[in-house]
Write a structure and sequence with these properties.
The chain is an all-alpha fold and about 220 residues long. About 65% of the residues lie in helices and about 0% in strands. The chain contains seven helices and no strands. The longest helix is centred in the C-terminal third of the chain and has 34 residues. The radius of gyration is 18 Å and the shape is globular.
């Protein structure tokens, strides 16, 4: 196992441990729903938690494949596609937190980085993109695989939008179901919000893939290949 693969194993293991720690904190500490934390099973209504759990599961699979094959080139394509998808998921969490939720949150960004959300909103997303970009460079997957990056947001949108539409009050959105505030302007904006979120996910997937290829190119250049 070369140095790059070893570093990716270490970082993916760290992701698993950080998400596990975040879940323990969430299940044992009383959450504040105003900062997108909840109590016990209630935390799983949030994309933040779901995307981080997905990332941890994928990271565990990647670590297993890396330890089994000992060579990055022998890791199956599915392993890299899953890493791309899970990285996009937590990057969506990071960017939505910083640029959409933080400006209107009580206490601003610091309030959204308390307790488990320090891992979920910040450290796990950064660790995932650093590992994917710098230590998991591969030509096995390409830019056409970036469409898979939409999957986490698409699946969550079915749940999120479904709950909102099933609980409209006289045709109006009930704020407790639209806890991210995407439809403050009304349910008529749902198609636009979906288009924006799907497009944003795709842009993040393409950007992540670009950084992955750049990392591979730099690595190969320094190694004389």
């Amino acid at each position: 196992m070369n140095g790059k693969l070893l570093l990716s194993v270490i970082m993916n293991t760290a992701i698993v441990l950080m998400v596990a720690a975040g879940l323990v904190i969430s299940f044992t500490a009383r959450g504040d729903t105003s900062t997108f934390q909840g109590d016990r099973l209630g935390i799983f209504i949030y994309f933040t938690v779901d995307s981080n759990v997905l990332c941890a599961i994928v990271s565990a699979i990647y670590v297993y494949l890396a330890l089994r094959h000992k060579n990055a080139a022998d890791i199956p394509k599915a392993g890299y596609v899953l890493r791309l998808v899970s990285t996009v998921g937590v990057l969506v969490t990071l960017f939505v937190t910083v640029f959409f939720l933080a400006p209107s949150a009580k206490g601003g960004l610091p309030a959204l980085l308390t307790n488990a959300n320090f891992f979920f909103h910040l450290v796990v997303p950064l660790t995932s993109i650093v590992s994917f970009a710098l230590f998991e460079g591969t030509e096995v997957i390409g830019f056409r695989d970036c469409l898979w990056g939409i999957a986490p947001v698409f699946l969550y949108s079915v749940f999120y939008a479904g709950r909102i539409l099933a609980n409209l009050d006289g045709g109006k959105v009930v704020p407790s179901y639209d806890f991210y505030g995407f439809l403050k302007g009304g349910v008529q904006f749902l198609p636009l919000v979906l288009i924006i979120m799907y497009s944003f996910s795709y842009v993040l997937a393409v950007s992540s893939m670009g950084l992955n290829r750049l990392g591979l190119w730099v690595s190969n250049g320094h190694s004389g290949k």
